[in-house]
Every structure is written in C-alpha cells, then in structure tokens.
Input
Amino acid sequence: MDNPDNLFRQPSRRDVLGCGLACGAAGVFCAARSAVAQQDTAGTGALAGPKLQGVARHRAMFFEKLQENKVKCVLCPRECEVADVERGYCGVRENQGGEYQTLVYGALCSANVDPIEKKPLFHYLPGTTAFSIATAGCNMECKFCQNWQISQFRPEQVDSRLVTPEKLVAACKRYRSPTIAYTYSEPVIFYEYMHDTAAAAREQGIGSVMISNGYINEKPLRELCHHLTGVKIDFKAFTEEFYRDQCSGHLKPVLAALEVLKDVGIWFELVVLIIPTLNDSPDEIKQMSGWVLEHLGPDVPMHFTRFHPTYRIKNLPRTPIGTLDRCRQIALVAGVHYVYAGNVPMHPGENTYCHNCKAELIRRVGFRVADNKIKNGKCPKCNTAIPGVWSQEQALAFKPNSRV
Amino acid sequence: MSQQSTRRQFLVRTGAVAAGAVIPTACDGKPAAPNEPRASARAAPRVVIARDDKLTRGKVHEHRDLLPKLLDAAMQKLRKTPDAPAAWRQLFRPKDRVGIKVNTLGLSTQPAVVDAIVAGLRQADVPAENIIIWDRFQVELARAGFKSRGGVQCRGTDESDHGSGYQRQIETKGKIGSCFSKIVAEQVDTLISVPVLKDHNLAGVSLGMKNFYGAIHNPQKYHDDNCDPYVADVVSHPYIRPKWRLTVCDATRAQYHGGPTFNPGFAWPFGGLIVSADFVAADALAAHMLEEQRKEKGMKPLERERRPTRHIATAGARGLGEADLSKIESIEV
Output
C-alpha cells in the first residue's frame, strides 16, 4: 500500500532528509512536524525551504463561472458549485470573487523516494524508484484511508513546503529517479501542479505516474494523459453502495475514467483493497473481473491488497490471506492475465508469472525486486510479450491516442 | 409594508404565545442546562428578538453603548427576570470557561456584539481570562476586527503555537468523522454561538448550529445534501451539545441571499439580535424570518432553490431542541 508512513529504509531516510522536504516517516500530518524540524536543521537539500505560511494560490483549471460570483468546478465528477470565499469538497480549491483557485500549487506535505512497487505498479519499470510527492486534500472520504492525516486535511492544517515544478524535477534528477509519482493523498485535487510538473519532467527525460482514485472528469483526464506515462487506479469496489457509503463517491464515474484510460492507451494498473465483509464477496469480485475483462481487456493488472484497520474502520479485522487468494483466483479464472496479492510480503501472489507459460518472471520480496527475468519486454522462456512499460524510452515515447 | 406591521404579522405567524408563559428556569443558583430535557416537557422554548432601529444606521461599532443594553434586555426576557446580572447568572457561573464561537467567513459577526456578550458574562462574574473568542483562522478573526484584549483571549484554531490546533484523534458522531478544535474540545466547558443571520448557498442558512462547522477540521466534507444530517451530527457531539448555553445571532447586519459571503445587493439592515438558550429554536425562528424577508423581496423560497434548511428540522427531530415554530415562544423587545 502506498503509504508514506512505512517507507523509510535507513539509507533513503538520510537521503530524503538531506534532500529537504522530509516526510520520511512522515507524509503524515503530525509526524511531519517532527520530520520537518529535522529538515530545518539539515536544510541544504534540493527541496529545502521555509515552511509555507498560509496557502499557495494559483488559478485553477476546469471551472465555469456562474451567477453571483459562484463557480462550478468541472475537474471531478462532484462538480461542486462553490460560492464566493467557499471551497469545494476537496478543501483545496477556493472561490475568490468568482475566480477559482487551487491552494496547493507546489505545496508539498510529503516527499519521498519510493520503490515503484510500493505504488504499486508492477509492470512499470520494475526495480526502479519513484520520487513520490503529495499535497493535502482529497475529493473522496474513504473511511479506510491510510493517509487520512494528509488526505482529509486542508492545506493550512499540514506542514508544507513550496516547491516549484522545476525544482521538483531537478530534485528528482539528483536522486536519479526515472519517475515522479503523484500519490499518497489524491493527485486529482492538485491537478494543476501535477499537470505542469509532468510536462516539465518529460522535457527532462523523467516520467510521471498518477496514483489516483480515478475520480476525475473525462476532459481533464485526457488533457493530463498528454504528460503522464503511467497510472494506477484504486478501484475500491464494484458496487455503488460501497462507493456511496464508504467513500462518499460514486462508482460510475470511476468506470468511465477507466474506459478513458483504456481509450487513451496509457499504461495503467488497478488496485482493489479488500475489506472483510464490505467488498470481498466472490460475486462482486467475479463481476468486477468480468467488467475489467470486457471493458479494459485481460492485460490490465489487478492487485488485490490486504486491508489493515485504520481511520474510521477499526472494527474490522485485517483481510485474511485466504480471502486475497480467493479474489486472485476468481480474477485469474475470469481471464485477467496478471493478478496479484498485495500487502502480504513473500506471498507468491506478489510475483509476476508469464500468462502464457506460467514461468516466474519477476520475484518480489516486499517492495524489492529480487529477480527480474523479463528481456526486452518478453518472457525468456516462451517469448510471449509481457504487457507493461519496461524501459524509460518506452515510457517517454507514450502519446495518447488520437481522440484526445 | 411597514416594519411595525411586519413585526406584528411575524409574531402571529410564528405562533407566539403570551409573554407570561411559564418557562423553566434554574432557581437554585446553578445554570440551567439548555437543550436538555426540561422538567416541564411542554413548556415552549423562548426566543427573544431584540431590535433597535438605531442599529441600522451608521456602523455597528458606533453603537457600543446600545448593544449591551439591548442584549441585557433580551436576556431579562429570556430568563424572565428584571435583573440583568441575575439573567446572566442563570446561564453562566464564575468558574465557567466560556468559548464564544463567532463566524468570520464572509459576512462576519460584529465585534461590538461580542463585546456586549463579554460584558454580560462579566456581570455573571466570569473572569475575562476565562473567555475565549474563537473561530477557525486567526487571520479571519483579525480581518473581522477581533483581537485579544482586557484579558479576553481571541484565538483561531489554526494558531497551534498557543495550544490551539485540532485534536489528533477522529471523533465519530452519526455520519461525521472529524478532528475537533482543541478550543472546543479541551479548553472551554461552556459555549455561546454567535452566528450572523445570513443565507448560505448550500445549507440555506448559516446560523447558530451551522456555525459549529468551524469546530471541525473537515467541514468541506459535509456540505452535500444541504449539510443534512451533518449539522445535527456535529452539534450533538459531546464536545458541543452539553456545553452550549446560549445563541446570540448577530442580526445587526443580515443578508437574505447570496451568502455566506457579504453581498451588499442582498444586505438586510435588521438592526437586532436573536437570543435563545434553545439552539434549534433560535435557528428555526431565524431561518423563518430570513424566508419571510426573501418573500418580501420577491425571491423564491429556499426549498425551491434546492437549498432547504433541512438540517434544522433534523436537529429538532433528534430532540436537540425545538424546530416546530408553533411550539416556540417568540418575544420582541
């Protein structure tokens, strides 16, 4: 699970603290305070700078002006109508006199160098790192959010540092990460910053992956795909009831966004956090897998990951490993080629197997790639092409399909 | 329509009963517990509308002498006593740590109104040091003209250097899950809500109950469905409901449309205060008055603008107070 809380291995921690924006153990609101304090004394890294006072205002994209100085945000399916001086549901976009503004342009509250496997993206440059960043805010409220200390807070309520897109790209280069990951909270709500950074990164030979809930309207998503090189979507369940009751959202817009990604042709993977009794029924997994197969095709990887009690769902147990195995089996039987079990270190379901000859191609130990046998994007045993992004050249060569 | 006839009509419409109706008051020296089940369950909760035309002229702060008198008169009617200090003492004790929740988003609570409340609390021997004027952001408080003085503290929840900030744990009540301001959760044991009589683009109105959205870290998450049932969820939390003693709705400068930001095109020089110890009744009556004003101005009812004030009815249905206008005793002074 892409949680900034757990990610520091010792060498990286020093690196990142030196780098400056320290969220080490610390994308988390409260922990961030102490981590930032360490950064203040370290303070010489590429992202060093004073704590942001207030917010980082920048004109928002994708809104319509209404009467009486109101605006309608059309970035995400909520389409909030926002009165003057008020904010949208995400808490990071504000109407000021009929002009909609983002308050988190470059206001990073988390930054870290993660294995790309932690996102998780298993078919995208395996074994490489992703320079991972976030701002405060989210356009959903999932009761099981693992990063709620940043996603469910407003920008004034978390410690942030102001980092321009150019500065972020430079830091990423310094750490030799081939990829920037927009992650931890919900990147859709810091769309403008992600958009500009991804564009600047590409010019410098760096890819960009969005780790998102997929709650975004078609037009902004298509526009964004001009700059991204990969996407991971948290596909939270396959029932409207779950999206409504557990996430304060809706299922249909997410399905629509997935179909847009398929149409655009960008590489993307799906993660389904399996929560006991809420979204773990075999029927639901079967329907979900069937929909994926029909609408997205067999080559979109699905990760069924283990839930741990947190935030507003503390009364349910961790997902039994047997449940993950069952979900994985259902999806494989349905015809999805690459299905993983996640958040269970050393589980064989974390490895990649050729969908044709079943040979083990990538062996993973936690977030580490222990062995990668894929050669030129193919299985060395049967020469079957393995879907995914296997080189930086391939990542940067991506262009959205023509309808964009 | 003249103001006089409007008031009269208003009293008739809201089913006001005679001023002599019995209302339970605490006579044992302890403050009453507003919004708790009453000994006489049938007694109508009382809402006092205190107006003075002079307040509609000039700036509100120019009436610093008038406002305490007006508020004292309202308190005397509310607590049925000719003695203003006694009225305040019925609701507040010297040991109380009182949080005055103002509303500084958009059309803001007037500092002169809060000064009058502080003067009233001082009559109940509440030390100035025990009084905190608070809202979400220090910058908004300052912009609205609030500052610490005379021992009374003025603090935004965001001012964590002074022990404010939000609690770290999530509090769940009904459908909400929020971190509460440490001011309301830990630093005060008594609350006064001082909203502005104003329109709200989603909730219909922003009054005493909605004002406590400023006590949670994530109010933006609870504006769907006209803020219902979320407003009732917030105010029924143990951090708020048992502590809430009084609503003083600032109607010196009201707004019947285009809120919550200030919009001079819809300004309403009401020139008064709406005071009650029943926070649901205060909001119900204030919302009704706002609807009447909209009607007088030829505007659609809030319901037809898809902004019904359902959160007030929900609070009433949950027994947090009285939302039925026919059961509310309204009195003008």
Observations:
- The domain at 43-332 of chain B is CATH 3.40.50 (Rossmann fold).
